[in-house]
Amino acid sequence: xxxxxxxFVPDAFLPAESTGGFASHxxxxxxxxxxxxxxxxxxxxxxxxxxxxxxxLVLGARRTWHxxxxxxxxxxxxxxxxxxxxxxxxxxxxxxxxxHSRLDTSGGxxxxxxxxxxx
Amino acid sequence: xxxxxxxFVPDAFLPAESTGGFASHxxxxxxxxxxxxxxxxxxxxxxxxxxxxxxxLVLGARRTWHxxxxxxxxxxxxxxxxxxxxxxxxxxxxxxxxxHSRLDTSGGxxxxxxxxxxx
Amino acid sequence: xxxxxxxFVPDAFLPAESTGGFASHxxxxxxxxxxxxxxxxxxxxxxxxxxxxxxxLVLGARRTWHxxxxxxxxxxxxxxxxxxxxxxxxxxxxxxxxxHSRLDTSGGxxxxxxxxxxx
Amino acid sequence: xxxxxxxFVPDAFLPAESTGGFASHxxxxxxxxxxxxxxxxxxxxxxxxxxxxxxxLVLGARRTWHxxxxxxxxxxxxxxxxxxxxxxxxxxxxxxxxxHSRLDTSGGxxxxxxxxxxx
Lengths: 119, 119, 119, 119
Description:
The structure is a homotetramer.
Chain A (H helix, E strand, L loop, with lengths): L3 E9 L12 E8 L5 E9 L5 E8 L3 E6 L17 E19 L5 E6 L1 E2 L1
């Protein structure tokens, strides 16, 4: 094994504001060190509405993909709302690893990151 | 399973100061991807006094909740002290995932986050 | 169980500089939700010299302690060098949880945190 | 055991820009608390090209090493591209612990860190 097939990120949020010419954004950073492409499925959860998705992506063998969550083109056309707390789940047919990061420039320039929770 | 029932966050702290119009705060970000509501119980630990709580909340099925720890209304009326190191534990009757985040604007604009420790 | 007895933090560093009146520092945030005091032992590792320690501390039952690593008084008199990469290990006779955080004000105001690796 | 032999970091990125006299950089922070040197092998993954490496390093017994990923001298001459999303894998013959950190000064002064995913 080189990873897990089920990952969870509880703290996702696309800030509504950006400053300094740096767009606030988030990335779901996936790594597939295996020899087979991974078919990954995203589901997005909210506080007060039903989940959105699934969004199905293909992560190549021996590749990483830092999926921009603010970019509908990266999510099969899905536009996530800005300024709204959300969370997401990633299911994969091959073992992968997921780390979630945010750049928030609402009031400065601040990055954060965490490994997702995997099973 | 899709998560765990017992989570721990050792580094919690509500900064006493805020600048730039951004309120320093923390959030306990919970995710419940299951089909049943989760009953979650928070207990808060301190360096030099007995724990506070329990605070009992209900996290809906297939929902996330970014629980604002600086908001007594989110915690059944409990007001956590600012400027004091604390920690917390979350117990749940259903599997959930917990990630803890802080925005500290005391001296700038800085975010941090970590997955909690789950069992 | 409510934690583990052996924890590791690879990325520790006490910045040599501070600005804005905010002292750059690190904290080893421990949580003991159990009913017995925990006896914890710190060992500090470096890139080019032998380890320092042990430093033995007592973490009360049902208490957290955000141990300031820049404060010799918190570490039984041990003064860790500033501006030097280090790492540390914590061994405990009771299950505890460890999270490591840094405030770096060398060139701004930036926090980071991560759960330690536990066994 | 005191660590694992296989680690993964999905979110790596060497910012192309730096400000304030602080070089944007990343570090792969390794800790070996054991009594034997660890032979560690890095492989670097990208979004649109084949992996780079291996890069073989020796981490001394009872030592930490905060390997600067922007420094070809630390990576046996390998110069990683700046401004390009990447990821990496570390394999070791001895148990070690890996934590990944970034300083990004492109638009401010921001640190982030996460424990790597280990197996």
